[in-house]
């Protein structure tokens, strides 16, 4: 069943509609659990779109195993997706900074309020992001320390490689996930892949994880694969940031999720005009690379990658 969650009229005789698809079990019991899969808050992040498709396809294939409600919201920012824009185009606004919204407010505040109302009360929500066009991320869940007790056990089911727990002080209170978590609806923020692309391998990995999560919550009786062992990072010093010392073209030497020794070359920053190597980018510690630069052009200070220190992986 496809329904409209929120709609507002636009100046140019068009209507902005946010839609969802609900998949219900054939034999529904009185109060089934509900999982909501939300994606596309940032219009240039497409990885979650494939997850929506593949999840629904696999549920339909074994529909008798479904014991709960699955709500799929593939396009929270449809104007952004249509125009390959990160924010809400005409408003020049990051949609993940307008929650919880306001039912009496302007168009975007009203949209946010309606979305939040619709998703609230789910037993678990996944808000799937895809980094940005500059960096590619290994499938990971990011959790605010305030909600770690409820969320870590759920994240461990979701078949991601890495759970990154952030300090409460770095939390943005205007995000969709914060609004849900602070009002009692558990929401996992997934970051994976890269903006404007689909990494099918990561999508399949997360879909396996969603089935695990559904199984764990008693919503799926079909076969699942055991989730991979998730590395959990609790402390800010677990993660090491690597930034460019010079502007130029970054040419990587290593792959994503590769284990590195201190001093290993991650890549070079080169100057195509002079033919000079401007910087050999070396790993500052032993660790594993969970973020790597995708877009080659860098300025001084640009993020090249993030490493998880070896000690955390033990
Ligand atoms: Zn995002």
What's the short story on this structure?
With 314 residues, the chain is α/β, with parallel strands linked by helices. It has 7 helices and 17 strands.
Structure description:
This protein is of the alpha/beta class and 314 residues long. It is 22% helix and 32% strand. The chain is built from 7 helices and 17 strands. The protein has helices at residues 47-61, 78-82, 107-119, 148-157, 176-181, 200-216, 310-313; strands spanning 2-10, 14-23, 34-39, 69-73, 124-129, 135-144, 162-166, 187-193, 231-233, 239-243, 248-252, 259-260, 265-270, 277-282, 287-293, 297-298, 303-309. Strands 1, 2, 3, 4, 5, 6, 7, 8, 9, 10, 12, 15 and 17 form a 13-stranded mixed beta sheet that branches. A 4-stranded antiparallel beta sheet has the order 14-13-11-16, with no helix packed on it. Helix 1 crosses helix 6 (200-216). The protein is globular, with a radius of gyration of 20 Å. Zinc ion is lined by residues 42, 45, 129. Residues 42, 45, 129 line the site of zinc ion.
Salient structural properties:
314 residues, alpha/beta, 13-stranded mixed beta sheet, four-stranded antiparallel beta sheet, 17 strands, 32% strand, globular, binds zinc ion
Terminus-to-terminus distance: 46 Å
Number of strands: 17
Q: Which molecules other than protein and nucleic acid are bound? A: zinc ion
Shape: globular
| Beta-strand content estimate | 25-35%
Give the helices and strands as they follow along the chain.
EEEHEHHEEHEHEHEEEEEEEEEH
Rounded to an integer in angstroms, the radius of gyration calculated over CA atoms is 20 Å
Average pLDDT rating: 94
């Amino acid at each position: 069943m496809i329904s409209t969650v929120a709609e507002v009229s636009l100046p140019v005789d068009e209507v902005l509609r946010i839609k969802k698809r609900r998949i219900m079990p054939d034999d529904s019991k009185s109060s089934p659990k509900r999982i909501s899969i939300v994606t596309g808050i940032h219009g240039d992040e497409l990885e979650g779109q494939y997850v929506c498709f593949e999840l629904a396809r696999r549920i339909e294939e074994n529909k008798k195993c479904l014991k709960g409600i699955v709500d799929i919201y593939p396009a929270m920012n449809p104007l952004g997706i249509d125009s390959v824009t990160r924010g809400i185009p005409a408003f020049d606004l990051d949609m993940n900074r307008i929650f919880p919204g306001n039912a009496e407010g302007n168009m975007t505040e009203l949209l946010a309020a309606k979305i939040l109302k619709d998703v609230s009360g789910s037993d678990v929500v996944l808000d799937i992001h895809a980094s940005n066009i500059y960096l590619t991320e290994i499938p990971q869940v990011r959790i605010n320390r305030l909600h770690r007790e409820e969320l870590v056990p759920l994240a461990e089911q979701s078949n991601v490689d890495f759970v990154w727990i952030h300090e409460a002080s770095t939390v943005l209170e205007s995000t969709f996930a914060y609004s849900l978590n602070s009002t009692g609806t558990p929401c996992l923020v997934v970051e994976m892949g890269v903006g404007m692309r689909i990494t099918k391998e990561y999508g399949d990995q997360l879909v396996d994880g969603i089935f695990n999560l559904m199984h764990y919550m008693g919503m799926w009786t079909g076969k699942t694969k055991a989730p991979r062992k998730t590395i959990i990072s609790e402390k800010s010093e677990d993660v090491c940031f690597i930034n460019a010392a010079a502007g130029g073209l970054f040419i990587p030497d290593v792959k994503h999720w590769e284990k590195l020794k201190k001093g290993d070359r991650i890549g070079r920053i080169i100057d195509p005009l002079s033919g000079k190597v401007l910087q050999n980018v070396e790993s500052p510690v032993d660790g594993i690379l969970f973020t790597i630069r995708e877009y080659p052009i860098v300025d001084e200070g640009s993020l090249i990658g993030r490493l998880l220190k070896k000690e955390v992986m033990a």
